[in-house]
Design brief:
single chain, 126 residues, alpha+beta, two-stranded parallel sheet, two-stranded antiparallel ribbon, 4 strands, extended, Cas12f1-like_TNB
Length: 126
């Protein structure tokens, strides 16, 4: 299972400080490739709405911050005190969304992946 956020790339490009990094990131192509490749490998792609507050929600207690500016790179929950990088916090929240999806069954995706037989040949000692 792959979970991504439906980012507002055109809105992000309007920010002069982020524009070059965002344009270089090829987000649209990355999403397009995931939409193409996931079914080939039996993986489910879940695209979370851009309005889901993944960066503002505490991964530990679920408390949602009212505001979190882009310059704040560290997420700190006022309720439980949990602290981590804001991107890691968002990724953990997206993982939780994926695990809560009704089609998620642990191990199911792996069982549909193609298997390759791999043998290890011991080296001969001369």
């Amino acid at each position: 299972m792959v979970v991504i956020e439906d980012l507002n790339v055109s809105g992000m490009l309007a920010n002069g400080k982020l524009a070059l990094a965002i344009a270089d990131g090829s987000f649209y192509e990355f999403k397009r490739q995931l939409e193409y490749k996931c079914p080939l490998y039996g993986a489910k792609l879940i695209v979370v709405s851009r309005w889901f507050p993944s960066s503002k929600t505490c991964h530990c207690c679920g408390e949602v911050k009212q505001s979190l500016s882009l310059s704040e790179r560290i997420f700190q929950c006022e309720k439980c005190g949990w602290t981590c990088d804001r991107d890691l916090n968002a990724a953990l929240n997206l993982e939780r969304v994926g695990r809560a999806a009704p089609e998620f069954t642990p191990g199911d995706c792996w069982s549909r992946l193609p298997r390759w037989k791999q043998e290890v040949k011991p080296k001969s000692v001369s």
